[in-house]
Specification:
Elements lengths: L1 H7 L1 H5 L2 E6 L7 E9 L2 E8 L6 E5 L10 E7 L3 E7 L2 E6 L4 E8 L1
Antiparallel strand pairs: 1-2, 2-3, 3-8, 4-7, 5-8, 6-7
Length: about 110
């Protein structure tokens, strides 16, 4: 469950910089948040609304993620994967409608 997962990392989230990523939420697209906890680490929450697309590109905040970064899946309600293309862009695959994936990343 997403809310239980967020509760587990709440303390580090309180002191982080939380920024929107993806599209403007409208219930049908890919959206999410990037929480920068340290210069080299943070959290990525990817959310998918009601649509049949498997993947979406996300533009992240500049120079926060690098190829070779390590990802730890914290919680998800679907099959998922994330691919780093550049320090500020990833592609995320989320299976099923109304799905999510919460990752911790470390450069």
């Amino acid at each position: 469950d997403l809310m239980l997962s967020v509760e587990k990392i709440r303390e580090s989230m309180i002191t982080s910089c939380v920024l929107p990523i993806g599209n403007c939420p409208n219930g049908t697209n890919f959206t999410g948040f990037q929480a920068i906890t340290e210069p080299e680490s943070g959290y990525l929450l990817f959310l998918k609304g009601k649509n049949t697309e498997l993947s979406a590109d996300y533009k992240l905040y500049p120079n926060t993620l690098y190829p070779g970064a390590k990802f730890e899946l914290i919680s998800s309600n679907c099959n998922q994967s994330v691919y780093v293309h550049s320090p500020d862009q990833v592609t995320v695959e989320l299976g099923g409608e109304f799905s999510f994936a919460l990752y911790r990343y470390q450069n």
